[in-house]
Amino acid sequence: MKKRKIWAGLSTAVLVAAPVASQGAPLPAQAQPGIEAKADQSLLHLAQHQGHATPAATAGGEGEGEGEGGTAQLQPSLHLYRGIEMIRGHLLVGAELIEAGRWADAMPHFLHPEEEIYASIRDQLKTYNVAPFQVALKALSQTVKAKNKDAYTRARAALDERLAAAETAVKAKEENGTYFVFETALEVLQQAADEYEEAIDKGRIVNVVEYQDARGFVLEVDRLLSTAMPAISAKNADAAKAVQASLNDLKSIFPSVMPPKQPVKDIGPFLSDVSKIELQLGNLR
Questions:
Q1: Which one of 132, 157, 193, 244 is at 20 to 30 Å from 33 when CA atoms are compared?
Q2: For the CA atoms of the chain, what is the radius of gyration?
Q3: Three-class SS string for the chain?
Q4: Per-residue pLDDT of the chain (285 residues; tens, 9 = 90+)
Q5: 93, 215 in Cβ contact below 8 A?
Q6: Which residues form a coiled coil (predicted)?
Q7: d(CA 99, CA 52)
Q8: Are residues 195 and 210 in contact, defined by beta-carbon separation less than 8 angstroms?
Q9: pTM
Q10: Distance, CA of 235 to CA of 108 (rounded, Å)
Q11: How far apart are CA 36 and CA 31, in angstroms?
């Protein structure tokens, strides 16, 4: 059975089981041609959300193999905020590896932000009058390459200051900041799901960097949503509890920064948790 991505309205994409083409089954009327999920995916694979993208966005170009710089058709503010949070996710897992003394393992997570994400958000930085920070990214990666802990600490603090300023500038233009943060979190979780799926092959974790990317993105989403959780709870306490429960379940998939040989869960339960979080989006309008 193949899984096809079916657009339900404007805001949600659902994967439903459908017979393969050779069996002659017609596509449902709302199916968008040219948008098809991978054969073994299941449940909900997050789509771009209402008001911020069109269905065509998920079929657009990607910045790299895992598409970290992609989804160019997202609303500029969402595309930018997504990029910032993915950079933070890389830095988060990179910092874990440095604390474990694994400088070489940390290196990809300090190179990816500049090599695979920054170029896609550079124009949005100008739009929001945010100072460029490519030099700060490069300086940080150089300290990691040199394994210089003191220089790393200083460079990381300088970059964190730039990222915080960018976040503030983007959120200041959003009427519903809580909803916007939640939307961004979902976009990052979509990327985490892609990374996690790439990490697994035949029931084993075969790509350590992809596993770590997914871990960093999930942990960053947890941090990001923790900043919005008081507002989410005030608006809908049950939604906040459901979101936190699913986040805790997602975090349990990543018991340590270095992966186990076999995944705690496969991609199906991962996507199920993400879908449960997405279902709460409507409660925050």
A1: 193
A2: 19
A3: CEEEEEEECCCEEEEEEECCHHHCCCCCCCECCCCCCCCCCCCCCCCCCCCCCCHHHHHCCCCCCCCCCCCCCCCHHHHHHHHHHHHHHHHHHHHHHHHCCCHHHHHHHHHHHHHHHHHHHHHHHHHCCCCCCHHHHHHHHHHHHCCCHHHHHHHHHHHHHHHHHHHHHHHCCCCCHHHHHHHHHHHHHHHHHHHHHHHEECCEECCHHHHHHHHHHHHHHHHHHHHHHHHHHHHCHHHHHHHHHHHHHHHHCCCCCCCCCCCCCCHHHHHHHHHHHHCCHHHHC
A4: 223 222 232 233 334 333 333 333 433 333 333 323 333 333 333 333 333 443 233 333 333 333 565 554 889 999 999 999 999 999 999 999 999 999 999 999 999 999 999 999 998 999 999 999 999 999 999 999 999 999 999 999 999 999 999 999 999 999 999 999 999 999 999 999 999 999 999 999 999 999 999 999 999 999 999 999 999 999 999 999 999 999 999 999 999 999 999 999 999 999 999 999 999 988 887
A5: yes
A6: 149-202
A7: 38
A8: yes
A9: 0.78
A10: 39
A11: 9
**b/e per residue 91-107 (b: at least 16 CB within 10 A):** bbbbbbbbeeeebebbb
Quickly count: other Cβ atoms within 10 Å of residue 165's Cβ: 14
The candidate with the shortest Cα–Cα distance to 136, out of 152, 123, 120, is: 152
Q: What are the structure tokens assigned to 223, written together? A: 């941090």
The identity of residue 98, as a single letter, is: I
Residue 246: both structure tokens together: 């699913």
Residue ranges covered by each domain of the chain: 2-59, 76-284
Q: Find, among 40, 46, 102, the residue nearest to 221 by Cα.
A: 46
